[in-house]
């Protein structure tokens, strides 16, 4: 990738030496390249705009929820897919406009709905129950809320089963066959007006075909609903475009090939209907994943059944390998262009056998004190980190053209105790 390079044996990220960063800020450490995120966003915008003028990219804030990241994307003009009141608050705090947000979720609380109503944020509904609740809450506030329903397109998605969401059996969305009933119910509501439609088929999808199929299902539904009297302001195709975690395997689809697969399907139907709603997408991973490396120090090396490289970051900081068996490239950041000298399994410090970041990798001879870089850690890395095993979450650094500054400090022992209350009988 263009933002990563090697200089004097050291892995560099946008002009910053990772070995120096690790020395200055300590490890483990997440390091994020701001420019890469801006480039990814602009890549999407230009690819989509080639097909249709009314497009919007809503960043899926769950992928990396650091307020600074959301701010960078707000500066670029992005909106956000928010999936909780917390994410909604952060998107507004980052400077995003309420009309550029969509409040998603299949299990929203009354408080979530109230917040959306209060802030003027559109809501994507996942059930008729949610419709009734939101209608009531909006009525109580004397407001009218614009909504969409999430459609379940019943598409078989080639990805890890835990992150495929568009299957008929998934908990998300309303089956395409029942969607007209849902919109009829919404049209009959006093305080809710349906203006959009939403879908998200899953994550880490490396083939554009399912997205084209999804767009087709969506546009059939849009056509039917338009004839029913729904006046569309947006059609949200969701996120899910995958990235090539394996740098030596096949490439992921480009933003252009994604746009080429979905946009013509949409624009041909929209042209026929003579309407021009905005087309939205909700990428998370493909916006931020390759922007970030996780730096982790080698505490010890042990030759046993395998050669284990014991590092200071585990599934407390990057759960993806343990949770989805996912692959991340790893390299020795302080000897980045040395030839491989052995096969190593990179293991975290957590007290579980499953705490393995990388299995059986060919690396230069690794010794205690080396610095390992785990690549493509920008999506669902820090955002899924925990304090398991009494470990505070590590710091995050932002880099930009050779400059580096903290964007979150590491948690301390005091932070681990920060929310603690003591029941009276234990005082
Ligand atoms: N929109 C909705 C409604 C979503 O639920 C998601 C992701 C996205 C957009 C963004 O999808 P993306 O472009 O990032 O694929 N933790 C898992 C991924 C979970 C995805 C959850 N929803 C992982 O680390 O692979």
Automatic annotation (TrEMBL):
<feature type="binding site">
    <location>
        <position position="240"/>
    </location>
    <ligand>
        <name>pyridoxal 5'-phosphate</name>
    </ligand>
</feature>
<protein>
    <recommendedName>
        <fullName>Diaminopimelate decarboxylase</fullName>
        <ecNumber>4.1.1.20</ecNumber>
    </recommendedName>
</protein>
<dbReference type="InterPro" id="IPR002986">
    <property type="entry name" value="DAP_deCOOHase_LysA"/>
</dbReference>
<feature type="binding site">
    <location>
        <position position="380"/>
    </location>
    <ligand>
        <name>substrate</name>
    </ligand>
</feature>
<feature type="binding site">
    <location>
        <position position="285"/>
    </location>
    <ligand>
        <name>substrate</name>
    </ligand>
</feature>
<feature type="binding site">
    <location>
        <position position="324"/>
    </location>
    <ligand>
        <name>substrate</name>
    </ligand>
</feature>
<keyword id="KW-0028">Amino-acid biosynthesis</keyword>
<dbReference type="InterPro" id="IPR029066">
    <property type="entry name" value="PLP-binding_barrel"/>
</dbReference>
<dbReference type="InterPro" id="IPR009006">
    <property type="entry name" value="Ala_racemase/Decarboxylase_C"/>
</dbReference>
<feature type="binding site">
    <location>
        <position position="380"/>
    </location>
    <ligand>
        <name>pyridoxal 5'-phosphate</name>
    </ligand>
</feature>
<feature type="binding site">
    <location>
        <position position="352"/>
    </location>
    <ligand>
        <name>substrate</name>
    </ligand>
</feature>
<feature type="domain" description="Orn/DAP/Arg decarboxylase 2 N-terminal">
    <location>
        <begin position="47"/>
        <end position="288"/>
    </location>
</feature>
<comment type="pathway">
    <text>Amino-acid biosynthesis; L-lysine biosynthesis via DAP pathway; L-lysine from DL-2,6-diaminopimelate: step 1/1.</text>
</comment>
<keyword id="KW-0663">Pyridoxal phosphate</keyword>
<dbReference type="GO" id="GO:0030170">
    <property type="term" value="F:pyridoxal phosphate binding"/>
</dbReference>
<comment type="similarity">
    <text>Belongs to the Orn/Lys/Arg decarboxylase class-II family. LysA subfamily.</text>
</comment>
<dbReference type="GO" id="GO:0008836">
    <property type="term" value="F:diaminopimelate decarboxylase activity"/>
</dbReference>
<dbReference type="InterPro" id="IPR000183">
    <property type="entry name" value="Orn/DAP/Arg_de-COase"/>
</dbReference>
<keyword id="KW-0210">Decarboxylase</keyword>
<feature type="binding site">
    <location>
        <position position="320"/>
    </location>
    <ligand>
        <name>substrate</name>
    </ligand>
</feature>
<feature type="active site" description="Proton donor">
    <location>
        <position position="351"/>
    </location>
</feature>
<dbReference type="GO" id="GO:0009089">
    <property type="term" value="P:lysine biosynthetic process via diaminopimelate"/>
</dbReference>
<dbReference type="InterPro" id="IPR022653">
    <property type="entry name" value="De-COase2_pyr-phos_BS"/>
</dbReference>
<dbReference type="InterPro" id="IPR022644">
    <property type="entry name" value="De-COase2_N"/>
</dbReference>
<keyword id="KW-0457">Lysine biosynthesis</keyword>
<dbReference type="Pfam" id="PF02784">
    <property type="entry name" value="Orn_Arg_deC_N"/>
</dbReference>
<comment type="function">
    <text>Specifically catalyzes the decarboxylation of meso-diaminopimelate (meso-DAP) to L-lysine.</text>
</comment>
<feature type="modified residue" description="N6-(pyridoxal phosphate)lysine">
    <location>
        <position position="62"/>
    </location>
</feature>
<feature type="binding site">
    <location>
        <begin position="282"/>
        <end position="285"/>
    </location>
    <ligand>
        <name>pyridoxal 5'-phosphate</name>
    </ligand>
</feature>
<comment type="subunit">
    <text>Homodimer.</text>
</comment>
<keyword id="KW-0456">Lyase</keyword>
